[in-house]
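Intended use. Records like the one below are meant for learning the mapping from a protein sequence to its folded structure. Do not use them to infer anything beyond what is encoded.
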Amino acid sequence: MKKIKVMSIFGTRPEAIKMAPLINKLEEEKKVESIVVVTAQHREMLDQIVDLFAIKVDYDLDIMTPGQSLSDISAKILIDLEQVLITEKPDLILVHGDTTTSFIAALAAFYHKIKIAHIEAGLRSYNKYSPYPEEINRSLTGVLADIHFTPTINNKENLLTENISEGDIFVTGNTVIDALLEVIEEDYSFEENILNRIDFKNKKIILLTAHRRENLGEKMAEIFSAIKELVFEHSGVEVVFPVHLNPKVRKLAQRILGDLKGVYLIDPLNYGDFVNLMARVYLIMTDSGGIQEEAPTLGKPVLVLREVTERSEALAAGAIKLVGTDKEKIIGSVNKLIIDSAEYNRMINKKNPYGDGKASLRICDYILYCYRLKNVKKEEF
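Structure written out for the chain above:
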């Protein structure tokens, strides 16, 4: 039986989450030899997802070092990945999204004339410094890619305006919805025990995540100051903040929010805890990209702590709202969702524009179709 060798390369927790359901589909496919390479751009947070989804890793480059710079990450991946590509000689590499791992892995594959499929292609903010460095990572990966799997029609149209051939683009939905639906449980017991003691039914619980490079410093201080004022103003509001491992984030969070009643500063959560927490909170405040895609499936309004977003579909649908990092604007936006039930209901009653849980199946089938191992390709999302 003819097989194709497909190598999946990723290095961060968000990539691992979104690649996991696809890797499992590839492992099930008899016409595919699946190889998994992790760079461990993020170590501990990556390992949690690999374990949760039982992903078999064939090569672990283990590049992470304390205080690593973007240059450190890029150079290590480019050098260390070369021997893996020479040894395995894959027919196709899969990279995901907008990380430094994705861009540098695509560059390494290009140097060896190996075909590249880019999952979650075509998202654009058109501001090269926001999100930084993700906007450029994703754009440059798109320049190198041979196959572009876009989550939405809008993402496809972005690529068409960049002169990418329509025949090289396939709309799939986002694999993060596939992962989310695998992990959500109605009667879930949290591993982080403090979450089992929170009164989700009678309190308005806000989930906060904040870690982006462009928000470090004064902007993040504004976000945390807004949180401090909100919990003082509303006795029924509590905030859960899984604090990113970045020392700059942790130090600032401890200084402004540490020991504050109604604010739970906890370590980063495993994926099962995190998505089941999202399913139970009242609203979400975040500078993350992936959460903007997941929350509409769960019916949770999202206030985006950024000035721009490449998730324009959720913005157009009204499921998310850009509030930036200005303290007063954040407070005003949260207050409106707490007080105005009509505004709250407008945000939660939206169909998720990002997927239906079948993106991984579409991608796997399309790869087989491209290599003439299937005669008919599935319809686009």
